[in-house]
Amino acid sequence: MSSIAVTGSFEWAMLNLKEGKRVARAGWNGKNMFVLGNPGLPEQAVAEGDFRNNAGVEAGTEFNYLPNIEICTADGDFVPWVASQMDIEAMDWALLCDEDENWMLVLDIHSDDKTAAGALYSGYRRSLIDNEDVCGSCEIIENQINATEVFMFTSVKLPESEGGRHLIQFGSSFEEDSFEETKELMNQVLTIKVDDEVYSLGSAVGLDDYFDTLIWREYDISEHSALVEKLNDKEGTHRYYFNWGE
What we know:
Number of helices: 5
Mean pLDDT: 87
Shape: elongated
Distance between the termini: 21 Å
Order of helices and strands: HEEEHEEEHEEEEEEEEHEEEEHE
Number of strands: 19
Strand content: over 45%
């Protein structure tokens, strides 16, 4: 049996808590909810007149406040938390990252739709033949991967005959001298942040490379319905943050 926690699983989330990080589920209704590890507070004593003393615990009684997990509620309050059965079985856990985290690629995407070969594409797509936008628009805000162009960032719903999965397709071009290094980087786990929500998409389920300059990757986002909704939103522009790593 493998001991490696699957990205997005409850086990994976708990490992990140032990490293002092915040995690949340995409399926939670309350925006800005997350859980974190409380390391506890050892060598405490019941104070005269505090709630423990008022409840009958003798003042001066020594105790350790033990480590536990807390949840930040939708109202911004903290309370001890115990996972539900649904939380334990869920595969939509994601890391929450600080705003000043160093992101490899940042894109402003205004989405639109395009139907091709029986599949609906939503997001941004550019033709490599005539160099014109097929749907949506894209502006590169931050670019630490030295991409010369991003030509695709779309969600696609496959026909039921092909499994009916929701996928994200990402395509970009690079200078030939950085192609091999960047290709290896993009074979690693992809994390995306949009509108303060972070999604760990795991490794690519589909990949292809062309002419030693073009990289194309495909990620399964069937468990991330909120991310699908962002790419389906044609009313405004969303800023997407990308990181690849182990």
